[in-house]
Amino acid sequence: NELIGWADLKPFECIGTVEEVNWALQQLLSKPDYQTSYLLQQYAKNPLAKKKIREDLVKDFQDAHFVPEPFAKLLIQELRSI
């Protein structure tokens, strides 16, 4: 609940922003292989699962991160291909 923004405290900043976590879960919900997941089924009942996430979120790589430079370059390259 914290990671998706349903509760006040979000303890794992390294996971991503609330918006990024919701975007990732929404992507998984759209894939048939994941629709039987109990956790995703519970998430789907939450109004946040239906909230529109901005389309360009995945391309918004922030400068403030702790990703080692070689991995950051690979990540940015992959994000641009989406």
Q: What average pLDDT do the residues reach? A: 81
Q: Gap between N and C termini, in Å?
A: 27 Å
Approximate strand percentage: under 5%
- Counting DSSP E segments of at least 2 residues, the number of strands comes to 0
Biggest sheet overview: none
Q: What is the global morphology? A: globular
Task: Classify the helix fraction into a percent range.
Answer: 25-40%
Structure annotation, total helices: 3
Radius of gyration: 14 Å
Low-confidence stretches: none
Class inferred from helices and paired strands: mainly alpha
* N-to-C series of helices and strands: HHH
Write a structural description.
The chain has 82 residues and is mainly alpha-helical. It is built from three helices and no strands. It has helices at 18-29, 38-44, 69-81. α1 crosses α2. It is globular.
Summarize the entry for a quick read.
This protein has helices at residues 18-29, 38-44, 69-81.
Describe the structure using short key phrases:
0% strand, 82 residues, mainly alpha, 39% helix, globular, single chain
Topology:
Layout (H helix, E strand, L loop, with lengths): L17 H12 L8 H7 L24 H13 L1
Helix pairs in contact: 1-2
